[in-house]
Amino acid sequence: MANIKSQKKRNLTNEKARLRNNAYKSELKTLVRRVDEAVSASDKETAQDALRVVSRKLDKAVSKGVLHKNNAANKKSGLAKLVAKI
């Protein structure tokens, strides 16, 4: 760890951000899993509702800087294709 006071502070804020980002990513994975489960069960209504929720969360993650916008767009596109196949 650095001896510089400002770097010590920065390390603390980086750690907080890392924990927050990991929690957000974990929640996103859970929401994506719900879409996949609904698709595998051929439940179109549930899948569409889950897709709507996960799309909003992905957009929110982009605005918070957790994900890159192209990464979120690719995830949304892939999930939308899965739901459309039902």
From TrEMBL:
Keywords: Coiled coil, Ribonucleoprotein, Ribosomal protein, RNA-binding, rRNA-binding. GO terms for cellular component: ribosome. Pfam families: Ribosomal_S20p. Residues 2-34 form a coiled coil. PANTHER family: 30S RIBOSOMAL PROTEIN S20, SMALL RIBOSOMAL SUBUNIT PROTEIN BS20C. NCBIfam families: S20. Belongs to the bacterial ribosomal protein bS20 family. Binds directly to 16S ribosomal RNA. This is Small ribosomal subunit protein bS20.
